[in-house]
Amino acid sequence: MTDLIAPSTQLATEWWGLVDEFGDEPVHGSGLHDRSEPAREPAQFAAWVRTRLGAGRADTALGPGMVHADYWWIRHEGRLAGTITLRHALTPALLLVGGHIGYAVRPSLRRQGIASAALRLVLAEAAARGLDPVLITCDDDNLASARTIEGAGGVLEDVRDGSRRYWVSTAAAAKPLGTEPVETARATLATFTRSEVGGILTGRRRPDWDEAFPREDDLDAVRAATDEDPYATRGIRDRASGLVVGTIGSYGPPDREGRVEVGYGLVESARGTGLMTDVLGGYVRALLASGVREVVAHTEVGNVSSERVLGRLGFERLRREPGPDGGDQWLWRLDGGRHETGLRGGEQS
User: Fold this and answer.
1) Counting C-beta atoms within 10 Å of the first and last residue's C-beta, which end of the chain has fewer, N or C?
2) What is the pTM (predicted TM-score) of this model?
3) Are residues 323 and 264 both part of a single domain?
């Protein structure tokens, strides 16, 4: 049996035995950076364990570039077998290498399905936190880890600087779209009040807006917005900064075929961080939970970032069409019936 346990000072001897078995290999998913003799002293080790146990609490202060994360030790048949962590958000660095989940199994216990079992358990934890999809990376030449991730449903996006980047759906439960805010792992998507719409259109700035908000596209999107329409344009409030950094919404309610078209955008400073992956994925899941059968979107030809977002989330590129401004655009489609169990991974920058 494989299960997950919290780091514990009572297992110090067994823990350091596991660490030593890795030799010079990194112990991914452990948060361990110091293997020296001083670090093994009981007081130092106890302090380190406390930091691992507290890292997942939202009220824990973090250093620059750090994210909240849950850490577990993997136990197999009563023996410590490895480590695994679930990061609650992605930094630009983690978006390239590291992802949401990191793990390692001690060399003597590999090829026994332990990593696969532990990964299934942590994907369930990610779903409970509303994280969907999650990013998992591995070295390009680590075929065993690649097979583990693919076995969990990982969809390869690309290989960057020797690292394979997979997105995995956790099939997190979603609430049907209503007038109340949609909460995603990294943002709150709330409809605008009439007063807020007026302020956006007349240039009355608010202190909780990013300095680059609203963009021209945001102005167009909110003109018909109302807080009584669940499909209306919503502001994207980045939970990390507390600022409104973009908009997302539908071009009206579902048509007779159960189809809606979505539109979205972020200020430049919020792009490239994985935020739109989280936002669009959460919004589309709410649409599907509301009975929407098909979601479509358009991207300008050449907008690679937005194309990647849609592709990661399972949208299919159908055809090239004339755009409203004279240029060409791509039509994308997601069949809700094929994605009842969750979306594939994604990000707009």
Assistant:
1) N
2) 0.66
3) yes
